Amino acid sequence: MASGLPSKSYARIQVSLPLPDLIEVQLESFERLKKEGLADLFHELSPIESYNKGMKLYFPSRTPESDQWGLTYWFGEPKHSLDECVERDLTYASPLYVSVLLAGTDVPEPIKQDIFLGDFPEMTEKGTFIINGTERVVVSQLIRSPGVYFEAPIDRSTGRPLAIAKLIPDRGAWMEFETRKSDYLTLRFNRKRTVPITIFLRALAAVNDGLPDSPIKEGTDEELLELFGDVDNNPDRMYIASTLYQEPEWDLSGGITIAQAALLEFFKRMRPGDPATLDNAREFLEEQLFDQRHYDLERVGRYKLNQKLDLHSRVPIIHRMITKWDIVRLVRRMIMINNSTQAADDIDHLGNRRAKTVGELIQNKLRIGLRRMERVIKERMSIRDQDQLSPITLINIRPVVAALREFFGSSQLSQFMDQTNPLAELRHKRTLSALGPGGLRRERAGFDVRDVHHSHYGRICPIETPEGPNIGLIGRLASFSRVNEYGFIETPYRRVRKALAPDDPRLVGRLLSEDLTDSETGEVVGKQEERITPEMVKAFARLNKAEILLIPFVTDEVEYLSADVEDRFVIAQANTPLNEHKEFLRRRISSRYHSGFIFQSPMNIDYMDVAPHQIVGISAALIPFLEHDDANRALMGSNMQAQAVPLLKPDIPQVSTGMEYHAAMDSGQVVIAEDDGEVISVTGDHITLHSNNGGERTYVLRKYQRSNQSTCI
């Protein structure tokens, strides 16, 4: 029985931001999969066309046919309750139904049918899945984001940096751009053969990338030299000119242009055995790079490319294939790194790594199942009789069901939930793993990728990680962090304001940082370091100023910043002393900028931490006086808390940190009333509540149940 001792808080810093839902990373991702992820998959798949183009099978998508016929998908109610699934070793799943349309010249009249597409495992309110009666968790995977990465290894013979760029899609051919010792640039296409970069640039002039505006129109020597002339200007090393010398003699007989000749040369080098015709070569390049079925950067890849190569005005964010602008800007950046006018990327920075959450992992597996289903449908279209044609006879759902079963049953990221105690369960759902398909292998992972990085601050806990071979490869989300729509981990900061608009009500009580004079009358409206009154605010309206400059103060505005955005700002610590007006008391503020800890004047501070425990995860934040512990012992303490066996008679701790309430609430082991109301009945098995909205609700209590680890909950 918990003893009701009066509690007293010794906290010196009031945390203004409440902790977020600690399992929202799981719940939000799965909800996004059901609403947007499945819609994207069906849009990619639709329509499936027969080999003779006479039949088309339409799925719900963003097409006129789909809208016209009202094609959609929906989930039915789960066949069994959660308790039933656990007792009878069943999977907790909802049936997925899809309305599809068969149409085309070979179909006498369009046929629309509702198809059962298999049972879709459903996430419980606790962020877990019940698969064959056991509770499982899908952990998020921390991997390199699609996009471009620049490295600059030092050449041992010359002592100069030689730039390497890797263009990595979510799906499709990898391209590696390299600088050779003799100062020419090459492209390694799909990890196989290499060609001088100028051959590839010329070949791009002969194909269409889907954008109206193209930087390469004819692919001539003059055009290429002019395109890079402003950056390739080191007289000792002319990279484009050196690369042009590596090209073969061009045979322009037969009326072909130099771009078409380069396209043929590129095709011959990539596919030496195939007949080299212009149509074959053009089809090969357009299919490899400009067809979304074969090459997909994903939204995150396009976002990173536009950000890194400054292409926001050139390429729309919805364009998910590679473009000519990407290649041109990439080569320009390589030349600038070679000339030491730009720096290479830090591959371990969290701006270059993203979390693939549960929804995206299931979506990728479903895509494989749907692609297999597509092949079966195409084969059935070619052998079915006309009178037997209908969507239900064409569609075989087995590949889709098998893909889902394989993912949940045997994927490295779908794990038997650690349920030793409620804390172990909570931290398992907040785990980030760098292992798994497409990730790192523990044998090959070096020291750098395992180490704590400055960009982890407030995003990944620097303490919680396993001891042993997985150290640094498996981590936990920090207390306040969240995963944004692109998969990048963000952390919250309080905004520091140094100016406000003249009509902003927050001006009252602030200190001016400049003298303000009415230019027409010469009247002094306000003096430097004078507190603003309501009368002064009215006078500001006559000054015709866009904003009023103030002594910096910390607002309650909270902004979530990703790691690459944060690097642009100076951030003060959460324990920085403030006065009652939220202004800095000291002239020199202990702050962070990039990877350095520096002292700055208040005028240079942009943001402030929201809480001192922002840097650590939930387990570490439960340790009282954590700041006095050695980091190695704190790591052991964090891990050992999750190994404690639950008590039969729990008691509140004598000393706590204030995180216990949140950890218990979000662990999934506490019964929480959905509405306010009055408790009208309590027994050893259930609690009945009369809701303020009217109606009664009975909550069944979990008692003495066996957990996954055979502990008693």
What report would you give on this structure?
With 713 residues, the protein is an alpha+beta fold. The protein has 3 domains: 176 residues, Rna Polymerase Beta Subunit, Chain: C,domain 2, CATH 3.90.1100; 204 residues, Dna-directed Rna Polymerase Ii 140kd Polypeptide, Chain: B, domain 3 (Alpha-Beta Complex), CATH 3.90.1110.10; 129 residues, Rna Polymerase Beta Subunit, Chain: C, domain 4, CATH 2.30.150.10. It is 27% helix and 21% strand. Strands 18, 19, 22, 23, 24, 25 and 26 form a 7-stranded mixed β-sheet that branches. The protein is globular and about 95 Å long. The relative contact order is 0.11. The model has no long low-confidence stretch (mean pLDDT 91).
Helical stretch tally: 20
- CATH 2nd-level architecture of the largest domain: Alpha-Beta Complex
Q: Based on Cα principal axes, name the global outline.
A: globular
Estimated helix fraction = 25-40%
